[in-house]
Amino acid sequence: MTLSRDELDEFAKSMARAGGRDSQHVGEKHLVVSSAEAHWIQTASPSQIGLLLRIPARSIEIFLQKIPAGEASDLHRHVHESIHFVQHGSGWSEIGDQRVRWSAGSFVYTPPWIWHRHYADDGRDVEMIVIENSRLLAAVDASQRESMGNASFADAFGANTE
C-alpha cells in the first residue's frame, strides 16, 4: 500500500506536534471562566444545569447544578464518574442502594453506571459544582446516560435506601 502525499504530510505534522510537547506555549483561551458566564438550562427535573462551555478541558466536564429547596434531580445513571461539590444548601442522595447525607463543603462521589438521584432539603436551594470524566468517554464514543424521571430508587427498584 502506498500512502498519498496528504497522508504523509499529516503524519509529519503529527510527529512535529509530538516533538513540541515541551513547549510552554498555551494556545487555549479562557483559562479563567467566571460562574457568571454559565449558560443555564432547565433539565427534565426541577434542577438546572449551568454549562461552562468555554473551559478548554478535553477529558473532564465542569458545570454548575442548582436544585430548588424540597426538590430533586431525576433518577439517572451514566457511564462516567462524577463528583458534586456542594457550595450551598444540604440534602441527600440515593446512590445505588445507599442513601447519603451531605451539606455545604461536601464532595459527593457517584460511581459509573449506578442509578442515583440528588435531593435538596426544604428551606434552601442547593448549589453544586459538578466534575465528570464525561468528555474523555465521549472522545472515545463511550458515553451513555439513562433516566427514569422523577422516580425514587425505592419506587424504581422496590428497595429502601434508608
UniProtKB/TrEMBL annotation:
Q: Which GO terms describe its molecular function?
A: dioxygenase activity
Q: Where is the Cupin type-2 domain?
A: 64-131
- Which Pfam families does this chain map to? Cupin_2
Instruction: State the source organism's domain of life.
Output: Bacteria
Q: Which UniProt keywords apply?
A: Dioxygenase, Oxidoreductase
Query: By its UniProt entry, which InterPro entries does this protein fall under?
Result: Cupin_2, GDO-like, RmlC-like_jellyroll, RmlC_Cupin_sf
Q: What is this protein called?
A: Cupin domain-containing protein
Provenance organism: Mycolicibacterium gilvum (strain DSM 45189 / LMG 24558 / Spyr1)
The taxonomic lineage of its organism, from the top, reads: Bacteria, Bacillati, Actinomycetota, Actinomycetes, Mycobacteriales
